[in-house]
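Tip: read the tokens left to right.
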């Protein structure tokens, strides 16, 4: 057991320094406003630490959203594989994994943000827990700063280092911790519910992926509710803030870039059409769908009849001779070498009467 403990300590040690560096940097800023020993300074430092970490995890969150969307769009193909290889579970699993591999889709992507945050969550928990129990610091937190963190209070008598189960008889601590546990549980449930109800097509609500989402929907809140009563208030502040960030970030992504054939997608199409209507323009392509207004086609312009060019009798005769020569296959008669034509062409125009 000591071997695994040493390995875990070796892995967590860099995280202690990283977490404490960010938290102490923010504490220096807020301490200049509220005082170094103030509980408000330490609480805002923990909230600021959460925001910094979640901002750094934005690329991972975007990857998670794309992978989740691919999983939704692949559900019809997954159902086809189930209908084809349902009698052979080993072949079905193999073909399904090949499909995920070809489309570069990770079926466990929905757990990635949680998996990445867990070491940070554990690191912050141990820093606060060590300060509360022994008054000693970890990472860059000195023993003096650890004692300040242990004794820091908010709302008069609520210590950041205390928890619901370790409130030392302080009812105010238990009430505040209970509120944070409920908030943490509710935001976890609502975030997952928002994804399933707004950004999942009907085809994706059944099958293995849907079962995985439903498992996360109901199991994770229960896990956090049961374990949350033992978390220090500082850790509850971190996790509740992280859940609020996730819910807001997910709401923005779903609203502006929804998956096709979902409720959020139809709502976006309606909003874009309404916006275009207010601006007086015809609705254009929006969220992958094109809306075209029926506009009457312009009437065709009338074709103007071209008047025939007036020709003299000699000009008509020469034209007929040329046409007859072309039909017979011989060369057309050269009007320039025709002496009769030359004589007539020298007549004054007044003698060439028009055909009436």
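Filled-in amino acids:
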């Amino acid at each position: 057991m000591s071997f695994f403990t040493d390995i875990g300590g070796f892995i967590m040690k860099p995280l202690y320094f990283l977490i404490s560096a960010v938290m102490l940097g923010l504490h220096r800023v807020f301490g200049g406003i509220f005082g170094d020993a103030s509980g408000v300074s330490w609480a805002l430092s923990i909230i600021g630490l959460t925001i910094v970490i979640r901002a750094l995890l934005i690329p991972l969150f975007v990857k998670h959203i794309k992978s989740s969307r691919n999983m939704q769009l692949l559900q019809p193909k997954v159902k086809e594989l189930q209908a084809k290889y349902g009698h052979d579970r080993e072949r079905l699993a193999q073909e399904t994994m090949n499909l995920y591999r070809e489309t570069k889709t990770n079926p466990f992507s929905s757990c990635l943000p949680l998996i990445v945050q867990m070491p940070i969550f554990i690191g912050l928990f141990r820093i606060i827990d060590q300060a509360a129990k022994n008054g000693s610091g970890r990472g860059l937190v000195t023993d003096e700063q650890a004692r300040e963190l242990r004794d820091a209070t908010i709302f008069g008598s609520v210590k950041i280092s205390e928890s619901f189960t370790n409130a030392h008889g302080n009812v105010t601590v238990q009430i505040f911790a209970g509120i944070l546990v409920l908030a943490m549980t509710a935001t976890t449930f609502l975030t997952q519910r928002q994804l399933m109800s707004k950004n999942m097509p009907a085809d994706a609500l059944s099958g293995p992926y849907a079962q995985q989402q439903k498992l996360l929907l109901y199991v994770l809140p229960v896990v956090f509710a049961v374990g949350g009563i033992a978390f220090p208030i500082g850790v509850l502040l971190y996790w509740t803030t992280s859940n609020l960030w996730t819910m807001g970030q997910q709401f923005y992504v779903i609203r502006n870039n929804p998956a096709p054939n979902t409720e959020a997608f139809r709502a976006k199409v309606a909003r874009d059409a309404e916006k275009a209507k207010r601006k007086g323009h015809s609705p254009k392509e929006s969220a992958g769908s094109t809306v075209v207004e029926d506009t009457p086609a312009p009437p065709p312009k009338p074709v103007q009849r071209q008047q025939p060019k007036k020709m003299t009798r000699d000009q008509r005769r020469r034209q007929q001779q040329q046409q007859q020569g072309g039909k017979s296959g011989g060369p057309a008669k050269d009007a320039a070498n025709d002496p009769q034509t030359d004589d007539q062409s020298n007549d004054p125009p007044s003698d060439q009467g028009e055909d009436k």
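The chain has 13 helices and two strands. Residues 2-262 form one domain.
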